[in-house]
Amino acid sequence: MKFPSLLVTAGLLAMTPLAAHAKIERVVEKTFAVQPGGVLRIETQGGDVRVSTSADATVKVTARQRIRASNDADADEILKKLTLDIAQSPEGVSASAKYEKKMVGFHWGSWPPVQVDFTVTVPVNYHVELKTSGGDITVGNLNGKVYARTSGGDITLGKITGDIDGGTSGGNVRLEEGSAEVKLGTSGGDIRVGRAVGPTDLGTSGGNIDIKSVENTLHAATSGGDVSAGIAGPFKGDCKLATSGGRVRVTVDRAAAFDLDASTSGGDVDATGLTITIERGGSGRSRLAGKVNGGGSLLKLRSSGGDIIVQTR
Asked: Is 15 helix (H, G, I), strand (E, B) or coil?
C-alpha cells in the first residue's frame, strides 16, 4: 500500500523544478531617426518578429525578453549570458539577441532560458531582413524588400511592393499581395497568396498551395497537398503547377490564350468549357494537351495522385 504514495511523491518532486520557473518579462526600447529606404535587420533565437509601419521617419524597436526564472534575481543572472544589441548604422537599424551557447550536460526545460521577441515600427518605405530560429515572422504593408527566415514558425506578410524571399522549416506562409518577384517556401505547411503581381515561385514539402490571383509567371509545387490558382487576364508568361499527392485546380479567363499541357498518373483531366484544339489525349482522360484560343504561353499541370481541373470564369 506504500507504493502509490511513493509514486505520487516522486511525481511531485519531478514537477517541482518546472513549476518553480515562471516567465518573467523585461522590456528594452530604442527609437532612431532614419531616412526612408534604409534596412532593418533583426536576428533572434526562438522569439517572434513583428514589423509594422508608420508615417514617422523613425524606427522604434521594442525587445521583449521572456525569461524562465523563479525570481528577479535568477532572471538577472540569466540575462548576463544574453547579448542584446540594438544599434543604428549608415544602412539602417539592426537588432540581435543571442544567448551563450548551451553547455554540455543536462538542463531543465528548453534552451535557451530566455527568448526575445522584437516588435518594430519602420517607415513605409523601408527594407527588412528578419531571422528567428523558432518564432513567427509578421510584416505589415511595406514599400520595400522582405527577406524572412524562421526554423519553426509561420510567416505572414501584408502588401509588399519589393522583392520577397521567405522561408520556414515548419510553418505556414501567408502573403496578401506581392507586387515584385516573390519566392516563398516551407517544409511542412501551407502557402496562401492573395495577389501575385510579379513572377512567383512557391514550394512546400507537405502542404497545400493556394493563389487567388496570378498576374505573371508562376511556379508552384508541393509534395503532399493540393494546388489551386486563379490566373487573371491574359497570360504574361509560362505557369507550372505540380503536386505529388493531391489535386490541381486552375481558373482562367474565358478569352485567355495559352498552350495547355496537363497530365496526371492518379486521376483525370477535366477541362470543360475551354475552347481548345486538342493535340494529345482529351478531357476526362489522364492527359490533355492542346492550344486554347489559338495558343500562347504554356500552362503546365502535373499530379501524381489526383485530378486536374481547368475551368473558366
From this structure: helix
Number of residues that make up the chain: 313
Grid coordinates standing for 42?
A: 533583426
Tell me phi and psi for residue 226, to 5 degrees: -90, 155
155-203 pLDDT, tens per residue? 999 999 999 999 999 899 999 999 999 999 999 899 999 999 999 999 9
CB 299 within 8 A of CB 259: yes
CB 287 within 8 A of CB 228: no
**pLDDT, tens digit (0-9, with 9 covering 90-100), for 34-75:** 999 999 999 998 899 999 999 999 999 999 999 999 999 999
Q: Are 82 and 97 in contact (CB under 8 A)?
A: yes
**Predicted TM-score (pTM) above 0.85:** yes
Distances (CA, A) of 109 to 9, 14, 21: 21, 12, 9
**Which residue in the block uniquely carries the three cell numbers 531582413?**
129
CA dist., res. 12 & res. 6, Å (int): 10
Separation between Cα atoms, residue 100 and residue 122, nearest integer Å: 29
Distance of CA 66 to the CA centre of its chain: 24
CA 243/CA 229 separation, integer angstroms = 13
Can you say how many angstroms the Cα of residue 178 is from the centroid of all Cα atoms in its chain? 13
CA gap 103, 223 in Å, rounded: 38
Give the end-to-end CA distance of the chain in Å, rounded to a whole number. Answer: 75
